[in-house]
Every structure is written in C-alpha cells, then in structure tokens.
Amino acid sequence: xxxxxxxxxxxxxxxxxxxxxxxxxxxxxxxxxxxxxxxxxxxxxxxxxxxxxxxxxxxxxxxxxxxxxxxxxxxxxxxxxxxxxxxxxxxxxxxxxxxxxxxxxxxxxxxxxxxxxxxxxxxxxxxxxxxxxxxxxxxxxxxxxxxxxxxxxxxxxxxxxxxxxxxxxxxxxxxxxxxxxxxxxxxxxxxxxxxxxxxxxxxxxxxxxxxxxxxxxxxxxxxxxxxxxxxxxxxx
Length: 236
Known about the structure:
With about 240 residues, this protein is mainly beta. The chain has 2 domains: about 90 residues, Immunoglobulin-like, CATH 2.60.40.420; about 90 residues, Immunoglobulin-like. It is about 10% helix and about 45% strand. It contains 1 helix and 18 strands. The strands form 4 sheets. It has a 5-stranded mixed sheet with strand order 3-9-8-5-6, with no helix packed on it. The chain is elongated and about 70 Å long. The relative contact order is 0.11. About 10% of the residues have low confidence.
C-alpha cells in the first residue's frame, strides 16, 4: 500500500514539473525598436523612426536599425556610448544592426563627407541644446532684389521680385541677389563684366551677393551641366 502511494505521489510531482516546463516562456529575445537609416545615392544621410520622422531623441533601450546604403562613394557610420557600427564605403546594400543605446549623444555620418553628411541625436537624460536665436534682420541693401535658384532637378533661373525671369537690369544700380542652391549635384555660377561668383558643387547652400552691374551681357550656368542649365540677361 505504501509503495503504491509513493508511486502515485511521484507521478503527480512529475506531472507538475512537466507542466512548469511547458508553460515557461521560451526565452527568445524580443526584437528591438525599429529604426531606419539611409545614405545616398546623393549627398543625403538620415535616421528615422517607424513613423518616418527624423530621430532627434530616444529612450534608452535596444533598437534594431535597418540601414540602406545606396551610394558607392558613401557609408553610414553610427557611433556613441557603447556603439560603433559602419557600412563599407565602396559597397552598397542593406544591413541590420541590433544596438543598445544608453544616456548620451550619438552621431551618424558618411565618413568621406563628414563635414556635410552628418546627424546626431540624444538618448535618455541627455537632450539637444536649444537652437540659437535667429539673427536680427539685416538691413535691406539699397537697390533691387533678384532671386537665383538651381535644382533640385535640372533647372536654373534668375527672377525678379514679381517672379518673372530677368531679361534686363539697370547698369550702375546695386542689386542684391539671393541664391538658393538646392542640389549637391549643381551650382549657380554668374559671370559678366566685373563679376564672377559661384556656389560650390557638392553641397546645397544659400548665398547673398551684392552686384553693381556694368553695361554688358551676364550669364548664369550650372558648371557641371552648362550645356543645358544656363541663362543670360543684359545690363543696359
């Protein structure tokens, strides 16, 4: 009788152990919070969250970052406390990193173009400093304002206050030219009697030029695409 009772108790205990084993969590690690990094094919680099918003601040934790490296001249390099990951400069493709962010500032950049292709974000208790206050408005120079624009497509123009293409200007008058270079693949180059200025190829930029036009013909071009992106006007 005692033997049968012991066997019964053993069977019950074994069943309880099996039940515990069955219902325990598998222990598989959960995926990190998704982020999306992109670099190229132009001179662009970004890190965005699942909603497509640019990352500026994150909570500490584990994140899964999918990086699309789309430029053979670029790479995506992420660094900060406890993290240092990068793609190859001469390679394209998609990689996935699982990283753990802690309190601090993290940076991402294209190493060959680190001065222009870069970004940063903060994690946890560290926050980005507030942006500097806007500069006081500059005094408007005497004369007439013109607006030059190039890109982002294969377009280049010079327009007056009314938005009309400039065909003539008054010689001897000082003009203020506001130049908007909207593409890293283009530039805005203005030449004519006594004047020769340009924006740089390889980055987007804005510039303000003051010009006292002399009589003659002035031409503006995109240097890399001067056969198709060009225009001219006269100072009379």
